[in-house]
Structure formats: C-alpha cells, structure tokens
Recover the amino acids of this structure.
C-alpha cells in the first residue's frame, strides 16, 4: 500500500455536489475517486471530511497534492 499520495489523475474534477458531508481520498488508493473507499487502511493517510451547506459546484483535487484539500489549487498544472 502506498504511503505517499499518488497522482490518481492530473486533471482536477468538477462535480455538482448536493449539500452534505463527503470524505475526500487523500491517499490516492480509492477506487471511487475523488472519495474515500477505506483503501487508506495500512497507510499514514486519512480522508479529509468536508461539509457543504448547500448544493454547489466543487473542483476536487485528483492529484492529491493540493495545499487546500479537498479543493484543487492548480498544483497539478505546475
Ligand atoms: S481511500 Fe484514500 S483516504 Fe481513504
């Protein structure tokens, strides 16, 4: 199991999200990107919980290198 976040995809992913709580995968191992599926077990990574109060567009980080998790900071473009 990878200890370092791996680049799942270099492209961020824009999604229309309903209000609610979500768990963003920080380790890159999830098969349900950009969300945690529990595959971080055995690594030092934990998912990042985020709550949206209303429906909104979200630019999820997919490369796992954002400094503003779980939102893309365009670090994948560097
Ligand atoms: S599967 Fe990656 S943080 Fe849970």
């Amino acid at each position: 199991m990878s200890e370092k976040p791996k680049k799942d995809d270099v492209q961020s992913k824009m999604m229309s999200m309903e209000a609610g709580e979500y768990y963003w995968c920080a380790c890159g191992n999830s098969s349900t990107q950009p969300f945690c599926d529990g595959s971080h077990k055995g690594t030092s990574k934990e998912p990042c919980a985020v709550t949206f109060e209303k429906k909104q567009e979200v630019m999820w980080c997919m490369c796992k290198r954002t400094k503003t998790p779980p939102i893309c900071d365009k670090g994948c473009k560097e």
User: Anything to note?
Assistant: Residues 6 and 28 are 5 Å apart (CA to CA). The pocket of FE2/S2 (inorganic) cluster is lined by residues 25-27, 29-30, 36-40, 45, 47 (CB under 6 Å). The chain is about 0% helix and 25% strand.
